[in-house]
Write a structure and sequence with these properties.
The protein is an alpha/beta fold. The protein contains ten helices and ten strands. Helix 1 links the parallel strand 1 and strand 2. It catalyses: 2 GTP = 3',3'-c-di-GMP + 2 diphosphate.
Length: 306
């Protein structure tokens, strides 16, 4: 049975909250906030809302300002917002929609209208989430794809620049993968990729980004992680992959590890050093972890970083 969608109701008048609860409690999981600040907090805590019904006229922080802050926050910008308000002029509705709301319900609250509008927006939200998920993920392994990795890396580099956090990267290349495809077939190769993807996903923190970079290559981006910690993680993953034997096929991988240096300004610089370390691991016999030297490496990746 599908899990109920979560709706966050925001209104400073208890009677209005009770009316909305009465309309929606049987079909949805509800969260309630009586002011704007509480709305901002609940929107970022699980269960994350699939939709917010937001009053406009509230003390301290009105609904328009709450909407602005939700849309400015990367963690909440994709949550659809329906304004529920006594301000029902065309100008008010236009202003709310320009702020990013998806709909505008005028008070007094009419249960049939609320139920219908909410149902429509929940369906649209699920469709949007499905499309966004497809755009961000590699369809074979369900890891993040290269495009999402590069976008996330840019954000993480900006975060590191502001706060001085450590940022490390693992680059993983499956050893002799062409031989696996040639000997066992591409279906077996796909199963190997999926099995290794599961290993890479295990035990990662929420802020880590695990992506299939292309072909038999994977990247793990680790914020708040020093080079030594990244090396330890890489060695653990290397051992797990070596012990995996999916479909009875012996598999190993070579790892390159790099930590962002202060003088590095772009993701491609960090990635290039990790790639050079993978190349060294291959030269040294494969199935090993090599840490990149803390020296600048001229980017030489054949893969286009866009």
């Amino acid at each position: 049975m599908a899990e109920k969608a979560t709706i966050l109701l925001v209104d400073d008048t208890r009677t209005n909250i009770q009316l909305l609860v009465g309309c929606l409690k049987h079909q949805y999981r509800l969260k309630i906030a009586m002011n704007g600040q509480r709305c901002l907090e609940l929107a970022q805590n699980p269960p994350f809302p699939d939709l917010i019904l937001l009053d406009v006229i509230m003390p301290e922080m009105d609904g328009y300002e709450v909407c602005r802050q939700l849309k400015d926050n990367p963690n909440t910008k994709n949550i659809p917002i329906i304004f529920v308000t006594g301000r029902n002029s065309d100008e008010d509705e236009e202003f709310g929609l320009q702020l990013g709301a998806v709909d505008y319900i005028a008070k007094p609250i009419r249960p049939a209208i609320v139920t219908a509008r909410v149902s429509t927006q929940i369906k649209l939200k699920y469709q949007s989430d499905a499309l966004r998920n497809m755009a961000m993920h590699d369809q074979l392994t369900q890891l993040y794809n290269r495009h999402f990795l590069i976008e996330s890396a840019a954000n993480k580099l900006a975060h590191v620049d502001r706060h001085g956090n450590e940022l490390s990267l693992l680059m993983i290349d499956i050893d002799f993968f062409k031989h696996i495809n040639d000997q066992f077939g591409h279906h077996a190769g796909d199963q190997v990729l999926k099995a290794i993807a599961e290993i890479l996903k295990e035990g990662n923190r929420r802020e880590d980004v695990v992506a299939r970079f292309g072909g038999e290559e994977f990247v793990v981006l680790l914020e708040h992680c020093s080079l030594n910690s990244a090396i330890e993680k890489a060695e653990l993953l290397r051992a797990k992959i070596e012990a995996l034997a999916p479909m009875g096929i012996e598999v190993t991988a070579s790892f390159g590890v790099a930590e962002l240096m202060k003088q590095e300004q772009t993701f491609v610089e960090l990635l290039s050093r990790a790639d050079a370390a993978v190349y060294q691991a291959k030269e040294l016999g494969r199935n090993r972890v090599v840490a990149a030297e803390n020296v600048y490496v001229e980017p030489h990746l054949d893969k286009k970083i866009v």
